[in-house]
Amino acid sequence: MLFGSFFAGARTQAQTSPNPAEPSKPIVNAPVQQPAPRMDEIIERMIAREKELMEVLSDYHPIIETYIQEVRPDMQLGIVPKSDYYFLGQADFRGRLRVHTLLESEKKGNWVWRYNPAGFLQMIFIDRGAFDKLHYRFTYIRREFLGEVRCYVFDVLPAPKTRGRFVGRIWVEDRDMTIVHFRGTYTPAVRFSLKTFEDEYYLHFDSWRTNVKSGFGLPSYVYSQELERPFRFSNPSFKAQTHLWGYRLTLASREAELSKLLVESSATS
């Protein structure tokens, strides 16, 4: 009946037209444009999506692999490699962030400092505990394509009188308001931990997420580096890459996954 009613209306219009020589023009309904979301709405939806991600991640235990290359300055070559470290484990998001190692032994540093695999895992989050408008200030910068993904770009700063928070830039996908990329560091750069009774150093990093399921991005890659040492005997200068995969794994299957990795490595060598 929809098509019949349309053509019947067209014939009636042609018969009652004052100028029969001019054919009647069918009325085409223009698509209704949705109003652009307001900045407050974008920020609220972005915060809600980030909280949803943290809830979803609590059910996952992906493999996390971190490769660290320490570097030193050279008068002729600039920055050159000095030593390297490698961590392979399985992430645990329940409660405090943990990485269950999949290696028999790991060299984490020396008597002055040491690397913490869970610290690199932390960089997949902007703020795991308080990412909201109470603790942060958001400044809209522009719209931008990140590859083929249209994004809103925001600068993020901790609210006044807040410490230990993220400062940097975030890219938010413009359909579902999902954060797909962020770049920055945590403040302050150095702080003393009462849990370990030692200084903790925060790094500059780039964190990326991959759309592995419709409308949802899971952390997949982090690049971090710290080339300027604030003190002579503080943290070393280094670059690091962290990869995450195997989100369908359970904690009980991590040893089987390690065996699979070793077998595939032997087969390709």
List keywords for this structure.
269 residues, alpha+beta, two-stranded antiparallel ribbon, 4 helices, globular, disordered N terminus
Write the layout of secondary structure elements.
Layout: H1 2-15, H2 39-57, E1 63-74, E2 78-92, E3 98-101, H3 117-122, E4 136-146, E5 149-158, E6 166-173, E7 179-186, E8 190-193, E9 198-201, E10 204-213, E11 216-226, E12 238-245, H4 254-268
Antiparallel strand pairs: 1-2, 1-12, 2-3, 4-5, 5-6, 6-7, 7-10, 8-9, 10-11, 11-12
The chain-level structural class is alpha+beta
- Helix fraction, binned, reads 10-25%
Beta-strand content estimate: 35-45%
Q: State the strand order across the main sheet.
A: 3-2-1-12-11-10-7-6-5-4
End-to-end Cα distance, whole Å, is 68 Å
Shape: globular
Provide the low-confidence segments as ranges: 1-25
Evaluate the radius of gyration: 27 Å
Characterize the quaternary organization of these chains.
single chain
Structure summary, number of beta strands:
12
Q: Number of helical segments? A: 4
Written as H for each helix and E for each strand, in order along the chain, the element string is HHEEEHEEEEEEEEEH
What profile does the largest beta sheet have?
10 strands, antiparallel
Mean pLDDT rating: 77
